Amino acid sequence: MLVMARRLKMSQLNTSSSELDFDRPNIEDYLPTGSIQEPRGKIRLCDLLDISPTLREAAGAIVDDSFTRCFKSIPPEPWNWNVYLFPLWCLGVVVRYLILFPARVLVLTVGWIIFLSAYFLVHFVLKGNDKLRKKLEVFVANHTSMIDFIVLEQMTAFAVIMQKHPGWVGLLQSTVLESVGCIWFNRSEAKDREIVARKLRDHVHGADSNPLLIFPEGTCVNNHYSVMFKKGAFELGCTVCPIAIKYNKIFVDAFWNSRKQSFTRHLLQLMTSWAVVCDVWYLEPQNLKPGETPIEFAERVRDVISVRAGLKMVPWDGYLKYSRPSPKHRERKQQSFAELVMRRLLEEK
Asked: Exposed (0-12), middle (13-18) or buried (19+): which is 344, by Cβ within 10 Å?
């Protein structure tokens, strides 16, 4: 009986193994017909690891994935799990959620009531007032969260370029923020790029337009890295004023991961923390140098901001966060890898 049970078990393992092999992609499907021959001799592991730079690229991406790292929150080191600090941590939770948070909600509510009460009066009184606009210039800054705009708005009434959001944030965009000349776009619409570029030029050269604030990274980055700047803000023919923003994470991580967290939840996280602390540097204005392209100009400004804020520059396009490699690109990689494998195997004949 024991022998029969072992045979039955081995038969089941062979069946499941064959089913798994049936589901796996066949490398021979990517090779021309008649090009497959049986190799001779034994293939060593070092031979397989040396067949293609594809394996080295894959290993390098696993060891040092500098793209995904730009859009991940770095969790703080736990400090409260001992008998002495845990009671203090519990007391802090009570203070933050039962005292600070209700007080902040009350202040926010009263502030919105006062603001909305005077909104229409201020809007019509200041309409056409261009005293804030002294010269042709745009402001650019690194981007960590939507609160970047709130922080910088304390300087003056900036008009900002922003992704169109749904819900209550979209309602504020289409009412309050629309009055200061903000420009909206949708990443999923390819035609929006041309429309936004035209609106940018019209806004910059408008006599009664508010100063323009642009986040050229195009997406939120975790405030440890800076990704590639889009060139749109640097080909307008005007002075660029860099702004560097660096958040202090001793109290809270201000990075907003919009793919995993709604802005409401992000705002709740900020309002239940002890404080949001950040440093803002208004750096020396920059102009396009003779013979310099807009892309080179963008990289030079990014370097200035990164050095001041202590950010690591990486050569990635932030929009790749919202897209996946096309099937054609994957098929080309698979075809190239299969050909290199077979070529190496045939050399062992």
From this structure: middle
285 to each of 135, 140, 241, how far by Cα in Å? 12, 10, 4
- Dist CA 282 CA 151 (whole Å): 13
HSE-CB of 259 using CA atoms within 13 angstroms: 13
Distance between CA atoms of residues 183 and 193, nearest Å: 12
Which DSSP string do the residues of 197-262 spell out, in sequence order?
HHHHHHHHT-TTPPPEEE-TT-S---SSEE-PPPGGGGSSSSEEEEEEEEEETTT------TTT--
DSSP state of 178: G
Q: What is the 3-state secondary structure (H, E, C) of 61-122?
A: HHHCCCCHHHHCCCCCCCCCCCCCCHHHHHHHHHHHHHHHHHHHHHHHHHHHHHHHHHHHHH
Identity (one letter) of the amino acid at 166? P
Would you say 313 and 303 are in contact if contact means Cβ atoms under 8 Å apart?
yes
Q: Are 229 and 260 in contact, with CB atoms under 8 Å apart?
A: no
Burial of 312 (0-12, 13-18, 19+ CB in 10 A): exposed
The amino acid at residue 136 is: L
Reported as a single tens digit per residue, the pLDDT across 134-181 is: 567 889 999 999 899 889 988 888 888 888 787 888 777 777 777 777
| pLDDT for position 235 | 87
Rounded Cα distance between 131 and 209, Å, is: 10
Compute the distance between CA of residue 92 and CA of residue 263 in angstroms, rounded to an integer: 24
Question: Whole-angstrom Cα distance, residue 349 to residue 345?
Answer: 8
pTM for the predicted model, two decimal places: 0.70
How far apart, in whole angstroms, are the C-alpha atoms of residue 321 and residue 67?
9
Instruction: Give the whole-angstrom CA distance, residue 238 versus residue 286.
Output: 9
The tens digit of pLDDT for each residue in 72-115 reads 877 777 777 778 888 888 898 999 999 999 999 999 899 888 87
